[in-house]
Amino acid sequence: MLNQYAPAERDIDLLFQALADPSRRAMVDRLTRGPASVSELARPLRMSLPGVVQHLHVLEASGLVRSQKLGRVRTCSVEPAALRTAERWISDRRTFWEESLDRLGEYLAADREAQDHSQPQQGSEK
């Protein structure tokens, strides 16, 4: 189903799909404080090391995390550009809806004012 979208949209889909899982969000949250080894990321989670590695593969495929292996230790770090992509996507939608709601508010205020001026005022007839 992802094939029907443009590459940028597929990237966003992968990014939000990766963030949809609470364990992966916890890993990203931990990595925002600095690089960590796979075993450090696994420590607070209630899952096996292979399970953590599977989650890391999803995070790497989405572009949120990168890792490098030095000797026997694989160290992971967050990829700030991917977080900025998600932030920009959310911000664009927030801006759209704020502007739409502002226009709706202006329209309703103008409509209310027009209705107030078109109705005869009570007590002004003698």
Give Rg in angstroms: 25 Å
Q: pLDDT below 50 for ≥5 consecutive residues: which ranges? A: none
CATH homologous superfamily descriptor of the domain at 2-81: Winged helix-like DNA-binding domain superfamily/Winged helix DNA-binding domain
Task: Tell me the β content.
Answer: 5-15%
Mean pLDDT: 86
- CATH architecture group name of the domain at 2-81: Orthogonal Bundle
Profile the largest sheet: 3 strands, antiparallel
- With strands numbered from the N-terminus, the spatial order across the biggest sheet is 1-3-2
Name the helix and strand elements from N-terminus to C-terminus, one letter apiece. HHEHHEEH
Structural class of the secondary structure composition? mainly alpha
Number of helices: 5
Distance between the termini: 72 Å
Q: Which topology of the domain at 2-81 does CATH recognise? A: Arc Repressor Mutant, subunit A
Keyword list:
126 residues, 3 strands, 5 helices, 64% helix, rod-shaped, three-stranded antiparallel beta sheet, Arc Repressor Mutant, subunit A, mainly alpha
Please give the structural blueprint.
Layout (H helix, E strand, L loop, with lengths): L6 H13 L2 H10 L4 E2 H5 L6 H14 L2 E6 L2 E6 L1 H39 L8
Helix pairs in contact: 1-4, 2-4
